[in-house]
Design brief:
Order of helices and strands: EEHHEEHHEEEEHHHHHH
CATH superfamily of the largest domain: Transferase(Phosphotransferase) domain 1
Strand order of the largest sheet: 1-2-4-3
Number of helices: 10
Distance between the termini: 33 Å
CATH topology of the largest domain: Transferase(Phosphotransferase), domain 1
CATH architecture of the largest domain: Orthogonal Bundle
Helix content: 25-40%
CATH class of the largest domain: Mainly Alpha
Strand content: 15-25%
Oligomer: single chain
Largest sheet: 4 strands, antiparallel
């Protein structure tokens, strides 16, 4: 993604270029993303598509089916002038300290409000019938630099329709390995629950100021199934290592988070 200014009206926009490695003959993947973005027009929680143009200077995209070439597509998107939530929270912790310190002006109430706005954004996608499948703090952005601004969901390359795509994409990996939803681990049918799991992981990251345990990277089906055999105490030790940040989080918040998972 690149920041740009549209010459016709001076408006700030973002440009999404498709690099050569992504362009192999997968027109359908690019076209599908464009169609999904068009379907999200007017969705308050999603960054909005502003238009499309074709970049001949960037190279030519081969079309094996028709034996011809065409210019690379570039998607013009609404530009969020804020930052992604990972950077937002990291900066807040650096400037004000972790809420667990008791001395920080950035409190758990601030985190809760930020998470509430994130949930509202994701909910708007679900109301349109779409499953994002790669929700994480880096894919949630504040619309403006104002801390209280709305949160927008970005990066829709993994998104599918709940109404028609869940069977097609069943059995495929999607998302970021350490944050995989159970549907990815089990290779099962995706649903809105997949996004809810990933938002739970995002909440953990917000509280803990780091990602969940690396034990969850590249887990196979047998390893995922074994999680169900663990006691709550063992599950807590696996997912939430015993560190100063984790111990400092209020006990009722930890219990709620673990039981909800």
């Amino acid at each position: 993604m690149y920041a740009a200014v549209r010459v016709s009206d001076g408006k700030d926009v973002a440009l999404k270029f498709f690099g050569y490695a992504e362009q192999k003959p997968i027109h359908s993947s690019i076209n599908n993303e464009i169609l999904l973005l068009m379907a999200l027009r007017g969705c308050e929680g999603a960054t909005q598509i502003q238009g499309i143009f074709y970049d001949k200077a960037g190279g030519m995209l081969p079309d094996k089916k028709f034996g011809k070439t065409e210019a690379y597509p570039v998607i013009v998107m609404e530009r969020c002038s804020g930052s992604d939530l990972f950077d937002t929270i990291k900066a807040a912790f650096q400037d004000h300290g972790h809420p667990s310190s008791g001395r920080s002006t950035f409190t758990y109430a601030h985190l809760a409000d930020l998470f509430r706005r994130s949930i509202i954004a994701v909910k708007s996608l679900h109301e349109r019938g779409f499953i994002h499948r790669d929700l994480k703090l880096e894919n949630l952005m504040t619309l403006t630099a104002d801390y209280n601004s709305p949160v927008k969901v970005i990066d829709f390359g993994s998104m599918i329709s709940e109404r028609g795509d869940t069977e097609v994409y069943s059995g495929t990996w999607a998302g970021t390995p350490r944050l995989y939803a159970p549907e990815s681990c089990y290779r099962r049918k995706y649903s809105f629950k997949s996004d809810i799991w990933q938002m739970g992981m995002a909440l953990y990251t917000m509280l803990y100021a780091d990602y969940p345990s690396p034990h969850f990277v590249n887990m196979n089906e047998h390893q995922c199934a074994s999680l169900h055999e663990l006691s709550t105490e063992a599950y807590e030790r696996l997912l939430f290592p015993d560190t100063a940040n984790w111990r400092a989080i209020p006990e009722d918040g930890k219990v709620d988070l673990i039981s909800t998972f």
